[in-house]
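Hi P.,

Sorry for the delay on this. The queue was packed all week, but I finally got your sequence through. Input first:
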Amino acid sequence: MTLRSVDLRMEPVEAVLNRVERFLGVNLDQETVVRKRRSLGSHTDRATWVRIERRGLDRIGVQGGDGTASAEALFGIAKPAWLAGVAWRDETEPVMWRADETELLPGAPVGSAVVAEDPQLSEEWWAALNASLDALAAQHTNRIATADIETLTQELVTGTIQSVFPGFDMPVVEWRPAHADFNWANMTAPVFCVFDWEDWGMAPCGLDAASLWGASLAVPALADRIRSERRDDLESRDGKLMTLFVAAKILGPYADPDDPRLGAARETAERVVKELQTS
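Then the structure:
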């Protein structure tokens, strides 16, 4: 059976919401329901948050569909605690639905995934980000991270880079746990907390730092701050590869000609290619 392309912002979801309420024994606050393309979210009557995801069965083999729950085993990371979860197979499509209940976030998301102005974050915020990324990288998992719903493999890294720099071919050496969707929409301020752990798993060293750098290129001072804070990640061999990987996604075949990050991404990518080829 072919998986139907669905945008949950456009689909009727009342039956799904009702099922989640029955399974988890909560009442969802209909006034707070947030609809995204592949997920839904809502406050509950017990001061928690429920996130509901629609995921094709073809993605369960790699990820298991339990990212938020499995991330509860990670330690030393500022993230909302996982409280309960439920999953079921759709009766009519090759799809799994999963709902996870977590603590409420300590603040609002910093911004959209890609920011256009400096969020003016405190030194305490940066310290908490660094502590969380360092703690995450020191752990291990059998999960494989996904980036934009694609499994992070050597082939994906090479293919993405070669879409902009044909012929460039360099293997990843070090793989470490990563959030894999590390952007400004998935972390809070003024208190740092990172959420949406659905895609986490093993990834090339430096992916999260490079991803946040790429989401900040429209604000040069912010991008520079990230490079300074995560210098060890981004100046490593694999960190440079991930910088190139992220830059290639910005510059690739589907690049937006009006994206203000294009110039900085191109300049950095060309420099990094030369550094890697001469190292």
